[in-house]
């Protein structure tokens, strides 16, 4: 394999730091030329000193001097702000952009990278939730690869290898069920953010951890899967699988099913995307069947976990609805983490916001960027009335 040059967006996050572990494990195959962060300047400096990228980008311009000082004499170029984050992906040596930013902030860099002919390794599911209808034709037009990093979608992608002639009948996205699996509404009324932040199987950033507890993460993944694999909403099912060993399943038209299994470790899908189509030997921990004698499955409860139903509903309605759902959810999660609304208040806020905004049937990219911003304003204005 020819050495691949990576722009790693969101390098200081959970996916970002694990991606750097993967890069570290394959010094002859992978190198990074771009590292970016929102605020964590100390970690960004440490990463830059270890990996020697060409560019670092920091969103928080007030810490620009500290970053420049930390990298003085290294020859690493320091860029600041959102426009720099978008522009930096176009540089010539970059082969693949690993987007590990959280939230719809990841959308514009993804669009730019595709337009510049870069392959995409996508952790930032919000990109496809907000604008899948615009992104996928762009991927086609520029002939780039869209490689999923989300573990469920990586699983489906891996199951589809060699099946180009065989239509999918259905996919099953597996869900751990999160920390509140099996609980009822009365229980959810009282849960705290500390409880919601404790995920049983995965260690992740705060936003996706809350999304996993509310099942919004699975809802966003249903929408992500629709665009990645060109499916109708009826072809996408969610099945709760608490052990998180089966990462997802494809069912073909003869009824045969293929699943992808492994320990819940994001380094595996990250490596798969970065070294695709090759599987490079590594020393990451192996699965042992005898540690998991029982793999179990349950129905996902759409009544208790209303966010999952809201996501299906947004997907059925189409147009700008998934974009509104996503932006309202970003505000709802933020408000929950600030103790401004309750756990169940998140679904109420999302639903109330979706009701307030009239829908656009065939939005352009610019429409979606505007709707994203507008939704945030509306959702913030509704927080006080939700509680
Ligand atoms: P995180 O919060 O740990 O990290 C987010 C990264 O994005 C950080 O580097 C942060 O500095 C940067 N960032 C945050 N806001 C930004 C902004 N407005 N502009 C630019 N950069 C910004 O999040 P994470 O858990 O690593 O998740 C990243 C993405 O990957 C999310 O879309 C998430 O849904 C997806 N994902 C994560 C996991 C996981 O295991 N963590 C698994 C599957 C998918
Ligand atoms: Mg996932």
UniProtKB/TrEMBL annotation:
The gene is dxr. InterPro entries: DXP_reductoisomerase, DXP_reductoisomerase_C, DXP_reductoisomerase_N, DXPR_C, DXPR_C_sf, NAD(P)-bd_dom_sf. The keyword Isomerase applies. Residues 146-229 form the 1-deoxy-D-xylulose 5-phosphate reductoisomerase C-terminal domain. Mn(2+) binds at residues 150, 152, 221. NADPH binds at residues 12-15, 38-40, 124, 126, 205. This is 1-deoxy-D-xylulose 5-phosphate reductoisomerase. It catalyses: 2-C-methyl-D-erythritol 4-phosphate + NADP(+) = 1-deoxy-D-xylulose 5-phosphate + NADPH + H(+). The lineage of its organism: Bacteria, Pseudomonadati, Bacteroidota, Sphingobacteriia, Sphingobacteriales. One of its GO terms (molecular function) is 1-deoxy-D-xylulose-5-phosphate reductoisomerase activity. PANTHER family: 1-DEOXY-D-XYLULOSE 5-PHOSPHATE REDUCTOISOMERASE (PTHR30525), 1-DEOXY-D-XYLULOSE 5-PHOSPHATE REDUCTOISOMERASE, CHLOROPLASTIC (PTHR30525:SF0). Residues 261-376 form the DXP reductoisomerase C-terminal domain. It is an enzyme of class 1 (oxidoreductase).
